[in-house]
Amino acid sequence: MLIIKQYPHEMEIPYHLLLDADPSKKLVDKYLSCGILFGAFYNAELAGECLLIFHKNTAEIINLAVLEKYQNKSIGKSLISMAENQALLCGYKCIEIGTTEHLVKYYEKLGYKYNKTIKDFFVKNYEFPVIDNGIILKNMIRLMKNL
After folding, report:
1. CATH code matching the domain that covers 2-146, chosen among 3.40.630.30, 3.40.47.10, 3.40.190.80, 3.90.600.10
2. Which ranges form a coiled coil (predicted)?
């Protein structure tokens, strides 16, 4: 049984998942200090996480990760839905996400639309090469969805 809820403060921070989505602990800690962390628990085991932060006019899913053994089971989709609902409850009408090229189609299927490309984002904002699926990342694709 899948349960999605705000991550309990008394539990250890799931860095193994957070750092899978963003390898900079410094950035992850910054986002944790101002965001809402949701956990997806499958039969009481943490299967995934989603970190939602807020800007002046938009909410942003800043971190999203699902353990490999739980991927392709709609857990990421459920976490995104929870983040979208929380953003709506907080009065936001738009939500954003920054991603890599190979995940754009996934988010488009969930109603997200292309906003812009930030050239060399991963090169300029990380002190080390960021690698995903064996590819060194350069550009970030920004997507938005009206809620």
Report:
1. 3.40.630.30
2. none
